Each structure stands twice: as structure tokens, then as C-alpha cells.
């Protein structure tokens, strides 16, 4: 099994995905444990002094004005976890919680938060045991970190609350820890606060969304190429010299992908034959420009994620010279903005994909294809309602593109009077990514059928297109023919796209695509 070693310098995005989705094991480097121990010594020194220090010897938030005596400090740290574990609604996905836990582990292992080494080790042990705290949909405002979600994770470390075991069964966390020989942590000064105060939930969802969207952009380039081919469009608009004069890197990459997929096609370039047209419609001709803008948006989001992965987000933090300083680094604005930005780009990529599908089905615009790609139009409805489903998904994506980060609502008696809503931005982006996957899958379904109909009529698709068609059929995506129950075909297309089968099939001919 793959192992990820946690260093003080931060993480790579692929490490987060490996732990969250693939159950990679976590190990703490010696340097990280040494840094944690050194920072803890500073906290212990401050705890022994009479001066109030936020999070060490005071209350929290609007209650920070109260100095807490030494005999109450362990109770203070337990209480912050218990009281802040106030989430509600459905449980969020296992991979999200694992990413949340792992990213908090990354921060506490940085030597900037002041927890003891045994707390950090327990966090790693819980991840490696496959114990996943129950974290609820609602509870985070994305400021002071993802407080409620992280509190539910910290509750599990204390042996309290509910968690999901490796077998998927939800049970009391204390029982699960005992079964795996893990002792619950007894929190001391600063530790409860340090476990809660980060952007880890929204960051984990951003990292996974970036991975998914990278695959989806490549998938969308492939389906756009198939649609262009099926519509007898021209690939001359994909020439590198045309994209070099508008030097957006994402645009050039999308055009290059489409050109690779269409290489050797006998269907492209016939736009002057039966119904002459000087140019293809925007949804075909401008596919690289729209998909490319999404790719560049994704590049920016990855830059933000990389910076956050190198960060130690907590309040207060232990600085290298031993000072413990309050700060506002827990504010989720940098992450929230790009989460919303990606949702906008996803909605537009889905929108142009749906327009191509609609064009394939309309006999007045499809240049010789049968109405709705039906076997016997009138008796058969073909893919008419598949496009309805796609349109419904696109409409939902447009609603999901409304930014969460433009909102704010004050909390904690106006002490926390401006928040990022980054958790909400992340949650809606996950839905957007799922819906975009389905939209691209439906375009694939329609374009594949249309290309097969062209070949049945004597045309020759590109080698890459034929490889995609063969792989799609092997994956259970049905081809042309009389009307049948469509949902299973569409579900198979979704699995084919989501699992990377579409990209792998095209790359078996083209080589690596961007």
C-alpha cells in the first residue's frame, strides 16, 4: 500500500487524494515530530506564566476576555471540542472527512500549532485504522476554519461521538478506537483549539475537485471532437497557429487535444458539401476557447491550493522564535473564491456541451443525421429526452454557479463579523462536478451514436474516435437502434467518463492528452 510521509514543509495535492480516496497510509517524519515537540515546549512555558494567552489560558471567540485558571484548562479544551461539534444534516462523504483529517494532521505536524507529539500520532493512527468521524453537511461558515466539521473529527480523537469503521458501519468512536488499540487523547492547553482552526474541509474538497476537473476537461475535449466529427465540421479552426495569436495556454491545450483525437478522420471538412456553411456554430468552433478558459481557471485554483497546502493555518500560531501570535490566517476567502470560480467554469463547460448535443439531435442543424438520432423517427424518439436530462443538469449547474463567497453572516456576538462561506462553496462545487460528469457523459452518448451513424452511411471516423466507440460499447454504452430503456446506457456512459475510461480509450491512439 502507498505511504505518504508528512513533513513540516507541507503536502502535494496527489498526497491528499491518495489518503482521502485510496486509503494510503500516513507516516510522520522524524523532523515533523521534532518540530511538534519544540513548539509544544513554548506552549508549556506560556501556560506556566500568569499572563493570558489566547487559546492557552483564555476562553474563545467573544469569550476570550476570560482568563482560565490552570485547573480548568483541560476542561476548557474538552469543552471547545464538545460544544463546537454542532453540525447537522446528512453525513458528508468518507473521502471528504479523510481529506479533512489528513489536512489538519498536516498543519499540526508543521510545528506551528503547539500540540503534543502524541496527539499528532493519534491522528495518524486513526486515519490508518480506517476510522472516519461522522461529519455533517451544515455547520461551517468557513471562518475560524471549518469549526464544526473539524470538531466532529476531534471528538473522535477523544473517544466520543460517532464514527464509521473500516467496514462502513457507524458506531461509537470509543469502541472503534479500543478495537484498534488506540488510546483516546487527553487534551491539554491549546490542543482543542489547534484541532479545529483551519480551512481543511474546503481545501480537501478543492484538491479533489481539481483532480476531477482535470480529467473532465480532457474528457470534454474528446467529446467535443466527436461532436465536431459527427457534424462534419472543420478541424482547421484547431490549427496551432490560430491559437498562438491568442496565447491562453488552456485554449492551446484544448485545441491540441481535439486535433489529436480527429487526426485521420474522413468525416471532418465536409461542411461545404450538402448544406454549405462558411463556419461551424460557436458551440463547435469555440470549444477550445471555452474549455481553455476553464483549464486556465483550474490552473489558478491549483496555485491557490498549492499555497494552502504549504500553509500552517491556526490561531494563535507558534512562530520560529517562540512567539505565540494571534492572526487571521484561518479566514477561508482565498479558497472560497476559487471554489466559486471553478463552479462558474464548470457550468459554462456543461452549457457548451449541451448545445452540441442539441445540435446533434436537430435534423435542421445536424447536416444529415436522423431526427434525435432515432432509428425510425416518429415511431422512435431516439435521444430526445436524454437531452432534456442534460438540459436539467445544466440549469442546475447555473444555479450552483451563484457564488457562496459573496455572502457573509456575522457570528460569535459580532467578534467573527465577516466569514467566507468557503465550506458552502466547496459543497456546491462537489455537486457541480458530479453534474458536469453526467453532462459530458450524455454528449459522449449522443456523439458516439452520431459518429456510428455516419460510419454506417459510408463515412470513416478517426482512429481515436473508433477506439472510443469500441471502449464505450465494451463498457455498456449502447449504440444506434430502436428505442430502449435509456437510463442504463446513460449510467454506463457516466461510469465510463468518471472512471477515466473515455480518456484512456482516446489516449490508446493519441498518446497522452493534456
From TrEMBL:
InterPro entries: Aromatic_Lyase (IPR001106), Fumarase/histidase_N (IPR024083), HutH (IPR005921), L-Aspartase-like (IPR008948), Phe/His_NH3-lyase_AS (IPR022313). SUPFAM superfamilies: L-aspartase-like (SSF48557). The modification 2,3-didehydroalanine (Ser) is found at residue 144. It is an enzyme of class 4 (lyase). There is a cross-link at residues 143-145 (5-imidazolinone (Ala-Gly)). It is found in: Cytoplasm. NCBIfam families: hutH, PRK09367.1. HAMAP family: His_ammonia_lyase. This is Histidine ammonia-lyase. It comes from Streptomyces hazeniae. The gene is hutH.
Amino acid at each position: 500500500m502507498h505511504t505518504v510521509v508528512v513533513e513540516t514543509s507541507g503536502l502535494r495535492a496527489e498526497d491528499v487524494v491518495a489518503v482521502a480516496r485510496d486509503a494510503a497510509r500516513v507516516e510522520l517524519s522524524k523532523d515533523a515530530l521534532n518540530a511538534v515537540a519544540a513548539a509544544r515546549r513554548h506552549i508549556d512555558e506560556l501556560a506556566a506564566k500568569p499572563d493570558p494567552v489566547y487559546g492557552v489560558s483564555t476562553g474563545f471567540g467573544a469569550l476570550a476576555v476570560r482568563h482560565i485558571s490552570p485547573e480548568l484548562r483541560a476542561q476548557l479544551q474538552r469543552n471547545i471540542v464538545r460544544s463546537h461539534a454542532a453540525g447537522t444534516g446528512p453525513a458528508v462523504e468518507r473521502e471528504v472527512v479523510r481529506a479533512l483529517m489528513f489536512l489538519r494532521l498536516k498543519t499540526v505536524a508543521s510545528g506551528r500549532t503547539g500540540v503534543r507529539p502524541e496527539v499528532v500520532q493519534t491522528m495518524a493512527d486513526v486515519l490508518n485504522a480506517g476510522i472516519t468521524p461522522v461529519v455533517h453537511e451544515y455547520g461551517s461558515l468557513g471562518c475560524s476554519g471549518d469549526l464544526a466539521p473539524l470538531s466532529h473529527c476531534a471528538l473522535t480523537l477523544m473517544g466520543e461521538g460517532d464514527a464509521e469503521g473500516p467496514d462502513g458501519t457507524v458506531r461509537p468512536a470509543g469502541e472503534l478506537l479500543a478495537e484498534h488499540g488506540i488510546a483516546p487523547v487527553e487534551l491539554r492547553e491549546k490542543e482543542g483549539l489547534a484541532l479545529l482552526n483551519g480551512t481543511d474541509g474546503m481545501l480537501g474538497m478543492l484538491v479533489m475537485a481539481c483532480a476531477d476537473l482535470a480529467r473532465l476537461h480532457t474528457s470534454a475535449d474528446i467529446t467535443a471532437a466527436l461532436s465536431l466529427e459527427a457534424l462534419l465540421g472543420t478541424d482547421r479552426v484547431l490549427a496551432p497557429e490560430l491559437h498562438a495569436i491568442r496565447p491562453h495556454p488552456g485554449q492551446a491545450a484544448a485545441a491540441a487535444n481535439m486535433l489529436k483525437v480527429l487526426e485521420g478522420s474522413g468525416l471532418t471538412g465536409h461542411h461545404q458539401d450538402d448544406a454549405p456553411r462558411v463556419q461551424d456554430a460557436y458551440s463547435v468552433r469555440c470549444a477550445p476557447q471555452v474549455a481553455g478558459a476553464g483549464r486556465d481557471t483550474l490552473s489558478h485554483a491549483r496555485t491557490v491550493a498549492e499555497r494552502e497546502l504549504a500553509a500552517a493555518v491556526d490561531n494563535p500560531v507558534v512562530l520560529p522564535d517562540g512567539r505565540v501570535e494571534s492572526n487571521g490566517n484561518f479566514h477561508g476567502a482565498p479558497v472560497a473564491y476559487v471554489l466559486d470560480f471553478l463552479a462558474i467554469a464548470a457550468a459554462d463547460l456543461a452549457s457548451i456541451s449541451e448545445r452540441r448535443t442539441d445540435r446533434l439531435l436537430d435534423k435542421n442543424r445536424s447536416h444529415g443525421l436522423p431526427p434525435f438520432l432515432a432509428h425510425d423517427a416518429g415511431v422512435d424518439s431516439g435521444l430526445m429526452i436524454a437531452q432534456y436530462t442534460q438540459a436539467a443538469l445544466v440549469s442546475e449547474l447555473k444555479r450552483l454557479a451563484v457564488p457562496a463567497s459573496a455572502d457573509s453572516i456575522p457570528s460569535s456576538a459580532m467578534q467573527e463579523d465577516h466569514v467566507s462561506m468557503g465550506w458552502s462553496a466547496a459543497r456546491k462545487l462537489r455537486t457541480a462536478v458530479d453534474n458536469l460528469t453526467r453532462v459530458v457523459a450524455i454528449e459522449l452518448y449522443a456523439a458516439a451514436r452520431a459518429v456510428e451513424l455516419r460510419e454506417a452511411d459510408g463515412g470513416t471516423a478517426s482512429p481515436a474516435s473508433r477506439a472510443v466507440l469500441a471502449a464505450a460499447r465494451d463498457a455498456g454504452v449502447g449504440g444506434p437502434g430502436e428505442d430502449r430503456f435509456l437510463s442504463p446506457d446513460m449510467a454506463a456512459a457516466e461510469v465510463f467518463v468518471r472512471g477515466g475510461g473515455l480518456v484512456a480509450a482516446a489516449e490508446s491512439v493519441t498518446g497522452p492528452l493534456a
